Amino acid sequence: MLYGEIPSSLGSCIKLEILSMGRNSFQGIVPPSFGSLRGLQELNLSWNNLSGKIPDLLVDMKSFHFLDISYNNFEGSMPTDRIFKNLSSALVAGNNKLCEGIPEMYLPTCNFKEPGNFEGSVTSVLYLLFVSWLRKKQKVSISSSSRNLLLNFLQSLLKATYGFSLANLLGVGGFRSIYKGVINESGTIIAVNVLNLLRHGSFRSFLVECEALRNIRHRNLVKFLTVCSSVDYYGNDFKALVYEFMVNGSLKEWLHPIGTENEVHQDQRNLDLFQRLDIDIDVASALEYLHYHCQTQIIHCDLKPSNVLFDAEMIGYLGDFGIARFSPGSNYNSSTTHSGTTGLKGTISYAAPEYGMGNEVSTHGVMYSYGILLLEMFKGKRPTDDIFQCTLILHSFVKIALP
Question: Does the fold of domain 251-401 match that of domain 1-125?
Fold first, then answer.
């Protein structure tokens, strides 16, 4: 509900790193004083009534990681340097009087008479492909109408997460960053897992998880909504998996809450004995389904508290199938999903010891991880706790305490 011109006094906040002023009614131009914000990393001015040309000061920001000026009234030639070279870092959708810029933005030339009507931004050059084609491992061409539909979907994804801003970042895993998002039209809260494609093995992890989620449905497995795979003008990939958001977080957060001054919040993080039993049964039910009742046996390989999530009713859901394995007898391409006999499969202290000696993954290994999970839940100690040194490990610690 804020309106008027952006105060130039903000330029004196020289140590400012993140500034979000989106979804207001600010008018006028970006203050020249913003050129003093040399430490600014993120700037969100989207959904306002700002106008004029995109100022050079935004181009000169060397510290910029993310800029969102979408849905304003900016006009004139698009800059082509620094952050404006990166389609995933500079969002400019909804500024229909912008022109030229880098070729992959598909903006009109600056002598174009009619206002542009293309729903520009990063989505104007990202080609979304749904993962159904992954079964056949082949590229698919799509019609212009299908392309527009898919582009609109990614635009919704960007809006839902405010351009994958740090404020919406829930956590960072081995291959991915997880963002919270809200679909405005329906109010649905989602969790968007964006793959870090610069990390070795992330693409394979994406394929494995897609194949696993394509074939499984169970009340104690994370609710998978959709997937997107896109590529920009340079051939750089963008891949993300979209899940139903789990409002009560992970088992790790409940077992080992981060210290806070809010003692009431801490009290709410306590799990009684019966809740812990219910959670154990939820996880066991998911594992039973994966091992014995789904079409192709799936070995999870990374069972640990951070991969057990809770909905509003505190029902447990097993998630993260990025390093899952399919049984050797499955029809799925084992060269893509089976790791062979080398390398550790899972997380240290939760993975079965035999994996460290090169043994094949198995359901027995998963049940070892499940045992560690049980001991951690009922004793409240991580298997990596500082007290576990030399001969004292979680197993013996629990055995001593059992009487």
Answer: no
Contact partners, residue 379, CB within 8 Å, separation at least 6: 394, 397, 398, 401
CA distances from 400 to 104, 392, 395, 396 (A): 65, 10, 9, 6
Helix residue ranges per DSSP H, 137-239: 144-160, 202-215
Q: What is the spatial distance between Cα 82 and Cα 273, in angstroms, rounded to a whole number?
A: 55
Amino acid found at 122: V
Burial label for 117, CB within 10 Å (0-12, 13-18, 19+), is exposed
Cα dihedral 329→333→335→337 (10° resolution): -80
CB 77 within 8 A of CB 99: yes
* pLDDT tens digit sequence for 222-257: 888 888 776 544 456 778 888 889 999 899 989 888
pTM above 0.85, yes or no: no
Residue among 232, 302, 320, 385 flagged as catalytic = 302
Closest CA to 360 of 343, 336, 383, 372: 343
Tell me which H or E stretch contains 368.
helix 363-379
Q: CA-to-CA distance for 67 and 19, rounded, in angstroms? A: 10
User: Residue 60 catalytic?
Assistant: no
Architecture of the domain delimited by 1-125: Alpha-Beta Horseshoe (3.80)
CATH number listed for the domain at residues 251-401: 1.10.510.10
Residue range 305-316: mean pLDDT, rounded: 92
Domain ranges for the chain, please list them. 1-125, 251-401
CA nearest 300: which of 354, 369, 251, 372? 369
Which of 150, 153, 154, 165 has its CA nearest to residue 46? 165
